[in-house]
Amino acid sequence: MSVRNIGIVYRKELTEWLRDRRTLISTVLVPLLAFPILMVGMTSLMAVMMSKAEKEVPKVMVIHGENSPELVAALHASKDLEIVPYADDWKDQISNKEIRAAVEIPSGFDASLNGKSPLTVQIHYYQGEVKSEYGAGHVEDSLKSFRDEFVKKILEAKNLPDSLISPFRLERHNVAPPEKVSGAALGGLLGYMVILLSMTGAIYPAIDLTAGEKERGTMETILSSPLSRVDLVLGKFFLVLSASLATAILSIISMGASFYLVGHSSAMAKKDAAVFQLHIGVPTVLSVFLMALPLAVLFAAVLLTIALFAKSYKEAQSYLTPMTFIVVIPAVASLLPGFDLTPKLALIPILSTSLVCKEIVAGTFHWNYILLILLSSSVYAAAALFIAVKMFQRESVLFRS
């Protein structure tokens, strides 16, 4: 193995790679621009739509309220509700978004107020439909106000203080620093994207340097050069690895800029914007990069090996497309609540890296797991690279017909 020869192959492949406009678009422009456009655009649009839905005065229907004039009057008096006449097809009207909710008042409701067997007032709405859920919330607030006023009147009649309705108050207080709050919320997303983009960034160059060479008829020319197969495959491997890491690094930069823009956007509510105040220091960036490095080596070697079996560019794409699903399933575990690292999970590639990156971004460094994951990932990466070298030495694979 010659470092000089590996460098020659690497520079040659890098020069051809950078000349390709598709490469620059997929590796540089897309990672840099995709996240700001998607996150800033989508969050701004979502904030506008949610604000519009919250300010809407929902149309609400009252069911069986003939014997409960006080409650019906209270609902009519609410400025946050528009009471519409009753219709038998009220379920269809809710489903068709003609009205937002319906209040079903049970018979004998007024009599039950002074009894010992309270009845239930049901609020019918369209679950999952934002405006219907806001409408149901406004109805619930009106009913709670009616209930509190009723209890207050009873207490006044008995010369008891109003404070008996709420003898004490509850208040939640966050003690975690902002970086840990945002890290816990967004750390999983960062780890997931680093893993996914490390793989997707390596797919195109892996195909181009193997199946692409075969399709262009240049594979034989390269193999006839006075370079060993080991130097040749390592030169190509380092180019694929460079593309993988470049895509991941640019995406992290883009995500950081996106979080900053969203967190400081005037369209975002303060309580929601606090989640996007993600402060990633140099130690965190280096730690995530260190954890992703063996995984990028694994991806580069595996993709290069699989693409080498293909006879054409299109065939290689059909081979490598399923790899996306194989990677996404364990990587998405970092986004699931309650999914924590264990010694067994630390030995599973991709999944372990996804989970440990989430912990690192949140500011927690489990050194025993970090060392175990680094060791296991490095073993997997070395095995994959060894197999890639062996496949390049087999004529039946290189010239498969």
Could you characterize the architecture of this molecule?
This protein has 401 residues and is mainly alpha-helical. The protein has two domains: 3-45 and 177-398, no CATH class; 56-164, abc type-2 transporter like domain (abc type-2 transporter like fold), CATH 3.40.1710. The chain is 67% helix and 4% strand. Strands 2-1-3-4 form a four-stranded mixed beta sheet. Strand 1 (59-63), helix 3 (69-77) and strand 2 form a beta-alpha-beta unit. Helix 7 runs parallel beside helix 12 (282-308), helix 7 (178-208) packs antiparallel against helix 13 (313-331) and helix 12 (282-308) runs parallel beside helix 15. The two termini are 29 Å apart. The model has no long low-confidence stretch (mean pLDDT 79).
Describe the biggest sheet? 4 strands, mixed
Shape: elongated
Question: How does the helix and strand content classify structurally?
Answer: mainly alpha
Q: Distance N terminus to C terminus? A: 29 Å
Query: Radius of gyration in whole Å, from Cα?
Result: 31 Å
Strand runs, count: 4
Overall average residue pLDDT = 79
Helix content: 55-70%
| Count of discrete alpha- or pi-helical segments spanning 4 or more residues | 16
Beta-strand percent range: under 5%
Q: What count of domains describes the coordinates? A: 2
**Low-confidence parts lasting 5 or more residues at pLDDT below 50?**
none
Strand order across the biggest sheet? 2-1-3-4
Order of helices and strands: HHEHEHEHEHHHHHHHHHHH
